[in-house]
Amino acid sequence: MRAEHHDCMEIGIYSFAELYPDPLTGKTVSAKQRLDELIKLAKLADDAGLDVFGVGEHHRLDYAVSSPPVILSAISQLTENIKLTSATTVLSTEDPVRLFEDFATLDLISNGRAEIIAGRGAFLDSFPLFGYDVGHYKELFEEHIELFLTLNSEEEVITWKGCYRPPLNNAEISPQPFHGSIPLWLGVSGTPESAERAGSAGAGLALAVLSGDPRSSKPLVDKYREAASKAGHPPENVKVAVTGHTISKTNEQAIQEFYPYHSNYWSRVHSYHGIHEPLTKEDFERAAGKETALFVGSSQQIIEKIMHQYELFGHQRFLAQIDIGGMPFKKAAENIERLATEVAPVIRKETSKASD
């Protein structure tokens, strides 16, 4: 059965399961250890009463998860209530039929807890790996969304034709999800066109707000809601999730402990895109300031930042990325505990009041 907080904000976590060396020890855990620990983190989150657990999809040796539905299926057998989502599925290079059937299977074995956050991804490795032309980057994404929505329409037999895969002629789609369809969110970081696409499709908006002033993301949420309204989607389907890097301790401890991992994470991601400027400690402290989107500080400071963003976006879900940059299991587990026991109860109470 799904964990539901209908009248207040959902609080969850997600991981990309990086295989980066710990910047303090130089140690890199094996893929086997990382996956074992990822499952343990999900179990901790479920036991602590968090609402959502997500895993990202990457096709590189420095990440441990290439198939979110496989790892989420393993997690489903050890958890009871927490929703299980990709974060994100690289939809441009996924066959939508295979994706739908994999997550429908996960949905059945988890008693209806499967969800998908779909996006374009930060890397292009999956294009040559699966035989897709990166020159069709945009067109593939749009066509795959269209096909997935058709598959997700609660019809068991589908006829469909596109440009980049063979057509479907009275194709039987099996199995069907536990609840008839799979909740779909589209991941958006800064492109108005992407926000409008999510609204027009009737999907949820998963907004990555990782740095800077969160007010700069307000136009994206507005465009999303305007597009959803124009397309005639019911308000209950128009949902916004905010994702962000998060660590909760005392303010000074959080800054001291998180900086090496945050710097390690971004230096590796940026190097892929040809950016080799290091993140200084001063840069990080500014990025973690009171008015910014980086959730680093005491539990009270995290609460204040989430509520500030809630006033801006009126979102229904907050997802914290809590184990970046080679962070060891123990620190990630402590982060989950603080989020669940010190932050989530206050946020749920405050957002429930706001909806009364």
State the CATH class: Alpha Beta
Radius of gyration: 19 Å
Helical content stands at 40-55%
Q: In sequence order, what are the helices and strands, one letter per element?
A: EHEHEEHEHHEEEHEHEHHEHEH
Distance between the termini: 26 Å
* Main sheet specs: 8 strands, parallel, barrel
For CATH, the homologous superfamily is named as Luciferase-like domain
Strand content: 15-25%
According to CATH, the fold-level topology is TIM Barrel
- The secondary-structure class comes to alpha/beta
What this model shows, in words?
The structure is a single chain. By secondary structure, the chain is α/β, with parallel strands linked by helices. It has one domain: Alpha-Beta Barrel (TIM Barrel), CATH 3.20.20.30. It has eleven helices and twelve strands. The protein has helices at 31-47, 68-76, 96-109, 126-129, 137-151, 192-201, 218-230, 251-272, 281-287, 299-313, 329-355; strands spanning 10-15, 52-55, 83-86, 89-90, 114-119, 157-160, 168-172, 184-188, 204-208, 240-248, 295-297, 317-321. The strands form two sheets. The chain has an eight-stranded parallel barrel with strand order 1-2-3-5-8-9-10-12, surrounded by seven helices. A two-stranded antiparallel sheet has the order 6-7. Strand 2 (52-55), helix 2 and strand 3 (83-86) form a beta-alpha-beta unit. The longest helix has 27 residues, at 329-355. It starts with 9 loop residues before the first strand and ends with a helix. The relative contact order is 0.15.
